[in-house]
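User: Design a sequence. Structure:
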């Protein structure tokens, strides 16, 4: 059983990645993101997930500097956006992100969306960054099984991570078991379905039973499914509360009851049809 916020999963290349972190999607650059990230780090978080698209890498970098925590204790992720896909443009996008973050290296670099036809070239750029020691792990985001199979058919290095929309209304069982078989760690974005799951009666009943919040029940379910999770919040109380999930365990029956909420329903775009801005 996972015991602390610093507990980590070991990726297939031997790198340790915390099971739990802070996501900063839609968090404004400047004081909002700086305060959220500093609050998280001060309260024991060690993993921070951003992306070029979020427009807040500079603030994340500033918060890392101000946090006083040694760089090597932190696990920092960012992502290459669709319009930067392709070999040379990905290498450039990486430098831009690294400069904005003010870092010498990244812990994890992800392809944000599969898009149409460039992700193999983009992956070659990630493999180069990895071999050059610029990033400790590389992975993908929003890849379905067929994208992963296609990518791995020509990849030298298998992705270490696949970060996808994952919550009790979208349990992605086939994708999860595929990734587990392949040694690819699944990671959840939007684990609370942007708050939509917090009023679910089954989740609320379990929250009463375990004397936890609805969010804590869902986030604990992620961890017990061996899925890394990165809930987003800018409120100090919520940042602390979300992470307070290491002192209880859901029973097998309760895990199954949550699994039963699945509707294969997304709050974000479908990776097969999402090409917005891709050719811009």
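Assistant: Done.
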């Amino acid at each position: 059983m996972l015991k602390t916020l610093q507990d980590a999963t070991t990726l297939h290349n031997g790198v340790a990645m915390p099971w739990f972190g802070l996501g900063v999607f839609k968090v404004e650059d400047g004081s909002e993101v700086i305060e959220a990230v500093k609050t998280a780090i001060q309260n024991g978080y060690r993993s921070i997930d951003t992306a070029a698209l979020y427009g807040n890498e500079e603030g994340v970098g500033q918060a890392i500097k101000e946090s006083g925590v040694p760089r090597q204790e932190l696990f920092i992720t960012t992502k290459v956006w669709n319009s930067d896909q392709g070999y040379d443009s990905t290498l450039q996008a990486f430098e831009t992100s690294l400069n904005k973050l003010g870092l010498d290296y990244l812990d994890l670099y992800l392809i944000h969306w599969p898009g149409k036809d460039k992700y193999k070239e983009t992956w070659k750029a990630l493999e180069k960054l990895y071999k050059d020691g610029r990033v400790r792990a590389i992975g993908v985001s929003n890849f379905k099984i067929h994208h992963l199979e296609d990518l791995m058919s020509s990849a030298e290095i298998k992705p270490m991570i696949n970060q996808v929309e994952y919550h009790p209304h979208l349990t992605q069982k086939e994708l999860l078991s595929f990734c587990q078989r392949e040694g690819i760690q699944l990671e959840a974005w939007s684990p609370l379905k942007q708050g939509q799951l917090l009023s679910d009666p089954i989740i609320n009943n379990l929250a009463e039973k375990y004397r936890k919040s609805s969010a804590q029940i869902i986030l604990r379910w992620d961890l017990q499914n061996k899925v890394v999770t990165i809930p987003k919040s800018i409120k100090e109380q919520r940042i602390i509360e979300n992470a307070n999930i290491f002192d209880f365990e859901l029973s097998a029956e309760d895990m199954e009851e949550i699994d039963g909420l699945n509707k294969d329903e997304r709050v974000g775009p479908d990776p097969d049809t999402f090409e917005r801005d891709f050719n811009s």
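Strands lie at 8-10, 16-18, 22-23, 47-49, 75-80, 106-111, 135-141, 161-165, 185-189, 228-229. The chain has one domain: 8-196+226-234.
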